[in-house]
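Schema walk-through. Below, the input block comes first and the output block second. Nothing else is stored per chain. Lengths vary across the set, and this one has 206 residues.
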Amino acid sequence: MTNIPPAMTASANHDEDFARAEIYSLLAQLFYAPPAAELLAQLRGAADAPPDSTLAPSWSALQACARELEVSAIQAEHDALFGGVGKPDVYLFGSHYLAGFLNEKPLVRLRDDLAALGLARDPAMPETEDHIAYLCEVMRFLIIGTDAETSNLVQQRDFFSAHIRPWADDLCAAVVQQPAARFYARLAEFFRDFKNIEAQGFDMLS
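--- output ---
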């Protein structure tokens, strides 16, 4: 979704950073489009979170739901919640939550920040850059990128604080309250818990 040359990324140096990047990648894929069977198979077979982890309950619930539902049901749920013609049941764009409308000032600020990072939207992606999947992809890059001036904790904190933290809870709440949400309600709860852990970690940098 982002124009990131392969040479600009590498495996993270630390297991924790690699795990964070993997979570952002998973969130991006699941929110962006109806998940392929291969992705759901990986989710179903993924390792459990450590029992003492804050993420353990919501991660286990997400995996359990993925194992319970058919692939076609999860794909249809994505379309029902986020797709369709006209207004979706749930918007996945930051401007909607921050400004009340799409394509507003928050998107302009985001594009300025992306340009400063040397990033641009992939022309193949029809959605605007404030789609939550795009933002998760940017966070993944800021974690695993090899350019220390761009991919570092300060840049991660600043981007997260400006473009994800202010509206992630509203998005999660909007998903959870939808009667049709089963798998995606569990995903929203996992995303909320992960966001809280990220926020606590970044607060320690201040």
